[in-house]
Amino acid sequence: MSLIQVKDVMKIYQSGGEQVRALDGVNLEIREGDFTALMGPSGSGKSTLLTVMGALNPPSEGKVIIDDIDVYQLAVERRADFRSNYIGFVFQQFQLISYLTAVENVMLPLAILRYSQKEQLDLANSVLEKVGLAQKRNRLPSQLSGGEQERVAIARAIVNQPPIVFADEPTGSLDTKTGEEIMGLFQSLNNEGLTIVMVTHNEENLNYVKHAVSVRDGVVDTERRTEVLGGHNSQTNLVSDSQAL
Ligand SMILES: Nc1ncnc2c1ncn2[C@@H]1O[C@H](COP(=O)(O)OP(=O)(O)OP(=O)(O)O)[C@@H](O)[C@H]1O
């Protein structure tokens, strides 16, 4: 079933006196349970597409429909509520709050959604356990490695069980081995049903995804679907290479 539909999306930024056409007629469908990589050269529009899909960045033209909801038709406050319930974000620089511990960082989205203190703590602890950080829950971000900070950011993104996570270059600042561990974590979350859309420059990450989309000059250039065999993906399993929509 199609969970996210991007329909004829244009995004034009005003930069000084200039107009930058960051997205130029994008059509894309993300199915429920998909794990999609957005790849492409620097400046091609990947992050813009991610934020437009993530209900954070209104398109100049076109629509984004998530679970049959036309997200930019929602008033700003309702769109913020929608984001809180439907979408988790993981950014390359993690964006953890430096003076809060790991568990306090993970509790934040639940505090915003007005969960009780006990629910916040119980859910944050259980999700930190899931990402392998239960022992370090009381550390500040500065007392954690890059991979561990990434795990906290992932825990924070999934703590209120949104159906979708968007990640922008989540392995960009990690060494190869840590990057592989993080991709393995994303893959196991996807196997549990989480829909994930990820911007990445790293071709190795294609080993973990089900669907790769190439973005060039603000358009979706090609799409490839991978077939998952026994829970493991391989680039050799690419089964189709079709022109996008
Ligand atoms: N807020 C903004 N104002 C003006 N121009 C912008 C803004 N954000 C992005 N752009 C421009 O839009 C185009 C697409 O940028 P975007 O960040 O989406 O590309 P990207 O593919 O994610 O790049 P990278 O891989 O380098 O992160 C670029 O030309 C960029 O300079």
Description:
The chain has helices at 46-53, 76-86, 102-112, 117-130, 146-158, 176-191, and strands at residues 2-15, 18-31, 35-39, 61-66, 69-70, 87-91, 164-168, 195-199, 211-216, 219-226, 238-243. By secondary structure, it is α/β, with parallel strands linked by helices. The strands form 2 sheets. A 7-stranded mixed beta sheet has the order 6-7-8-3-9-10-11, sandwiched between helices. The protein has a 4-stranded antiparallel beta sheet with strand order 2-1-4-5, with helices on one face. The chain is globular, with a radius of gyration of 18 Å. The structure holds adenosine-5'-triphosphate (ATP). Adenosine-5'-triphosphate binds at residues 13, 15, 20, 22, 40, 42-48.
Jot down its keywords:
245 residues, alpha/beta, 7-stranded mixed beta sheet, 4-stranded antiparallel beta sheet, disordered C terminus, binds adenosine-5'-triphosphate, ABC transporter ATP-binding protein, ATP hydrolysis activity, MacB-like_ATP-bd
Quick structural overview:
Keywords: ATP-binding, Nucleotide-binding, Transport. This protein has helices at 46-53, 76-86, 102-112, 117-130, 146-158, 176-191, and strands at residues 2-15, 18-31, 35-39, 61-66, 69-70, 87-91, 164-168, 195-199, 211-216, 219-226, 238-243.
Low-confidence stretches: 228-245
**What Rg do the Cα atoms give?**
18 Å
Global geometry: globular
Class by helix and strand content? Answer: alpha/beta
Helical coverage, percent range: 25-40%
Could you tell me the number of beta strands? Answer: 11
What is the average of the pLDDT values?
88
Write out the strand line-up for the largest beta sheet, numbering strands in chain order: 6-7-8-3-9-10-11
Query: Treating each run of at least 4 consecutive H or I residues as one helix, how many helices?
Result: 6
How far the N terminus sits from the C terminus, by CA atoms, comes to: 16 Å
Largest sheet: 7 strands, mixed
Query: Which hetero compounds are present in the coordinates?
Result: adenosine-5'-triphosphate
Order of helices and strands: EEEHEEHEHHHEHEEEE
What proportion strand? 25-35%
